[in-house]
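re the bet — no i am not wrong, look at it urself. input seq straight from the record:
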Amino acid sequence: MLHWSIQPLELPLRYVWKISRNASISKTNLIVRVSGQGHTGAGEAAPNVRYGESSELLLEQLGMLQMKGLATIYSLADLDALLATQPVAHALSFALEAALVQWLAARAGQPVWQWLGVPPPAQAVPTAFSLPIMEPAAIGGFLREQGAARFQLLKIKVNQTEGLNLLREVAHALPGHALLVDGNEAWPDADSLLQFLEQVRTLPGINLRLLEQPLPAGLADDYRYLRPRSMVPLLADESVTDTADFADIAQQFHGVNVKLMKAGGFRRGIELLRQTRAHGLLPMLGCMVETSLGIAAALQISALADVHDLDGFLIVSNEPFGLVGEELGQLSLQG
């Protein structure tokens, strides 16, 4: 039988991580490990409060799986059958699948990407770098301290009240730098968002390239109205779950930010990225606040995306695993 374990991992952050919904100075992720037959595998779960996930819930769910026979799981089909009878949070589902896939790939003597049947990751993968919401006056110093100019694309977390001032300060500090604005569902409707975009258009030095999930996911009609009127391509995040209707998504957005933690596993993440491209949408691969264990997993399928937002491990203070390196805004697998 295989041996499975789960370990909570407290992750102090390098700075306050604030988005439109919440703010935090630390995260508690969970590390799932599997071992047996001379091989090991590990996966990371980053609980998402947006979907009612917590570290306590995931620990409880893993305990139930162990009672239901997790140790007898030797294949993805076995794992699927168990999760069909004992559903778990998507973040835990991903950690379980990632650990098992790593174990299976090691047993087969293959890298994970090859075992999954996807193209190999590039040796260096450019990533966006994210700025949390902060006082606008702090933007310039933050950009200098973090060396943010080395990243080709900056992702700016905004809310409705301070969004314009935040963008003004970023454009002043780094005029012409490519920006992705992430609203995390902060605007209440399409018209208020369009007014914001008109104001953004007037900012000196602004180079807004992409706009991610500015309205709540439930406002599908507003997104259909907004899509042809937006001055920049719209990316879906919270609007795309593991059961997304891509024909409908294509009427609302220009691209999709796929996160393995939300998808619930490699296979569903791969399918979401392929569906995104098949519907003529821009495929983007994103992340939560994660260690390099989770980011290394995402890099295994990174060749399927055109845009990468995989900087979650750079937010972590004293990142513990060292599985991913970053140089000049580009990521590479270590070892």
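see?? The CA atoms of residues 11 and 273 lie 29 Å apart. told u. also The chain has twelve helices and 14 strands. so pay up
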